[in-house]
Write a structure and sequence with these properties.
Oligomer: single chain
Distance between the termini: 16 Å
Largest sheet: 2 strands, antiparallel
CATH architecture of the largest domain: Orthogonal Bundle
Strand content: under 5%
Radius of gyration: 24 Å
Number of helices: 22
Number of strands: 4
Amino acid sequence: MVRSIRNLFRVQRPLDRPATWGDAVVLVTVFAVIYVGAKLAAGARSVIQGPQISLEPAALPAYAAMSLARMAGAYVLSLVFTLVYGHVAARNRRAEQVLIPLLDVLQSVPILSFLPVVLLSLSAVLPQRLALELAAVVLIFTSQVWNMTFSWYQSLRTIPEDLQEAAAAFGLSRWQRFKTLELPFATIPLVWNSVMSWAGGWFFLMAAEAFTVGKRDFRLPGLGSYLRKAAEDSNSHAMLVGVVALVALIVLLDQLLWRPLLAWSNRFQLSAVAGEVKPTSWFYDALRGSRIVRLLSERVLRPVLLGVDELISRGLGGRAEPAERHEGLSPIGYVFSVGAGAALAYGAYRGAVMLFAVPAHQWASILLGVVATFGRVIAALAIAFSWTVPFGVLLASRPRLGALAQPLVQIAASIPATALFPIVLLFLLRLPWGLDAAAILLMLMGTQWYLLFNVLAGASAIPQDLRYTSLLLPLSRWQRWRVLILPALFPYLITGAITAGGGAWNASIVSEYVQFGGEGKSVVGIGALISHATAAGHYPLLFAATLSMILTVVMVNRLVWRRLYRVAERRYRME
């Protein structure tokens, strides 16, 4: 019986290996795009200093509303990108060979080093306020989207074969397959990763709304710029008020949005037995029991959704889609590929010319910085794994405890570590190796939640009947972990590790170089180099350091995480 449970996660399938040329095309693309952005940034006009940020508490409601609007806009973009990008990558083998390496590269691009390129490029061609708003939304988008896309792609690639065969047997169209099989199967991990995406957006909010490049000062009114201004002025009262306002907003979103969504998503759990304690939400129960909501749903929402459903079904032709994945490109796709390839080749050539402007001693500093930051990333991931896996399984296996702890976890994950970091520095800088320890701690504070929320999603998705079966069998605690829990968590752990690793490299930019007490403090690392290059407006060094970080993360993903992803897809999927 134990072997039968284990075999649920060990279905052998042919392994689709991504082509090496996909990585090469992707790296050349990113190389050319970053060069074009850096070239535009170097020639951008001087930008007038941003608006003055008021530290009066009365300004906080308006600032909170503006920050929330930017977060919501970035999330909508992230969700659309996730559904389209992940679906194409999962269903088209030829596209997957480019899209998945591209996803590896994009999530490894250090956000805070990419922001100056985006911001100055936009300010070179757009009005300042519009450029600032778009750049802020892009930064928040890039902090939200990758874990959602990886989760959606992983869910599509691990749908049980019997469910796919049933969908094919019923002749479901592409739209019917999406709404009745793919989206329901992926709902639980997608909701959990959406919660994590919002937490990641809060983490980078201070950088998105208040940024300095050389003599150019960019500010947008919002909670992030309020907290940044309070930290710069060493105004502890304003810092406390700003953090309280942020926590209040996070609690409000948790109660009115995320808890209802988690309670609603429980209906999609793949289980023949109901759980003892379901996720609950007072607001969700209130909406379900409201006559006004029921009337609006029947008279307005349902007809609109039916109309949209019919429109999409007609647009997709209503044809049944086979379960196997498609291959190949259309003739238009080939023509576009040739034209894009020529443009990318020229951009790569010009980028190489810029890299030759970086002297040898700076390349040596970049190499040393990569090695130092790599060690800190490994340390942060090791610490994160050591506590998130047992804690996440504990919360998922004890629903009453989880119902109490999960809101607190969501609040803790959403409070930006950059807002609390000055307090941490106050104590750690007095210790030997204090700044190194602080750098690892900030990486941990910004990335451990990617792992925890994926563990919670994976543990929550374990069918309840398998839990009961494992409890009835004479299994030791270690045997239960070995034959049920770890195999079920394995795909989620890999998804969490990929996004947590990318987040740790991103966090190195704010953790290895800090402003404290009006004085800059730094440790050896690639993040510190990127911060120095950004502050000085040294674009060749910024270009070289950013590409070095990208190449390092891509190699780690390709040699380690991508191979484990394939193992998860082949062996550890529920059937």
